[in-house]
Please model this.
Amino acid sequence: MARKQLPPEAELLLPVLRGAMRLQWADQMTPAAIELPWHQKRIDLAVSHSRSGLIAIELKVANWRQAIDQAYVNRWAAHCSWVALWHECVGYNTYGYAREAGVGLLAVTDNTVYPLIRPALAPRPPTSELERTVADAGMRIRDLLSLARRRRLALA
Amino acid sequence: MHWLSYSQSDQALLRDPALESAWDALVVPGTLAAFYFEGTGGFVLARGRPYVIDPRTPLLQEITVSRPEPKKSHLALAEIHDPDVPSFWPEREASRDHWEDGRWPDVVRRVIDFQQVYSSSAAGKVEKYRKLLEEATGRSLQREPDPPHRIVPPYWAVTGATDPWWTLSSEAISLALDTCGPEAIQPIVATTRETPIRRFAELLGELPDDCRAVFCWRGSWDENDADRADIEGWAETARAAERYAIEVTNLYGGYLSVLLTAIGLKGLNHGIGYSEQRDVRRLGETGAPPTRYYMPALRTFVSRANAQPAMDALPAEWLCKCAACERVTQGGVPIVDRLSSENLKRHFLICRAGELERVATDIGRELDDLEEVANWLHARTLPPVIPAGLGARLARWAAEIRQLL
Model:
């Protein structure tokens, strides 16, 4: 049987942004950034929520262990850290590994996300510097939604 | 002796009176000494600390990897070696034949001469740097600039005593000895990345009898990958050094080299937070990497992003209490995000000086501590931010060094 093709990673952004709004982490005007530089790494998606603070999300289609490892480090950069994985790639072991890492787990479908595990609290209050960087960058969820839609069209 | 590779960006740290006892001497890259002639000279000569100028001759050695576009400083260094080279290099590599066509003694003389006259010729900005030093330390140092601690003859990366490149290096050492005298030179014995460490022991035996001190540099030797043969190779080198009454300093080393001082290595050199290894073929690739945090308990660097999670996973008593970390400590834990690049380096230098002191005063206790850390790492599932295999590495180092004591 032919192996089922997984979506490219760029495809995850749109459902994750839609999901973030559905889960009320953000509205159209919420400051957000993609590929946010933090020391020598980059956070795939950062959303600056007015109440919850900075939410970091690592997007990955398949390599869940690596994604959770990255999201684990993000716990020290953000108020909460999630990993968004393509729903077909979330297995039994993913749950345990994410829970142990204190990382929230989102299952991504074509149109939205479903929270499977809630993240642990940040080990220590993150510095406000990253939140400022997100705000200063001037991007909002609506800008990222447009970008993600364009990407999806380009990939189609 | 604890040497530091000089870098312009570290000038403020190298003037810091609080770090006065954290280092002994400077290895000044020939590229900086040649191209930023008065700036580097001003700092180094005003600083009043022992220094050597590394001619970095392997920068001009034929390489099989792709060579980056040479910087102006590389061309300046090439010109000091041989004024003919910049006219064709790097479009064409300077093959061994080029150096063997009778010009080598002149090359050696030029490189030696550059170092011998450095303290008088590069002194144009000494006053400016003296004032800066005075502001930083509150002490004035009004004396004639010192010449280099020792002269470093030009050298090549070699595979052993039968390598024709060694013939050239060896000739340079003999010429330098004749010109400067036995106490005044400190050659760099550099070997290629494929050459076993123990080859240094053989090469020490090939040096002229009058040679009293050398730097050894095994290209790309990464201590983290050191195996038993590597450590035994250094032990063999230390034994040969004792036999021939030569002081051996590892030109690029880290914590393992600190441990090796317990078995006869005279000292080590590194950059402040970088350059604990160097590929002889890639001297053209310059610039320090992003600053990392040195984890003193783990005897390793981790990236800034990984440092906080790594610290939070360790027992509180293993966290750093140096002056730089104390200033950013919250609830007993240093907050790495609040450490500036300069303080990250300051912290590292304090830690490294502490390691050297501990090894010098009580190596047994240092090895006990290393084993305790290794056992702790072995006994638990570690977060991904702690390098895999670290416990095994520390345990191996402790066991090997203990056996050699």
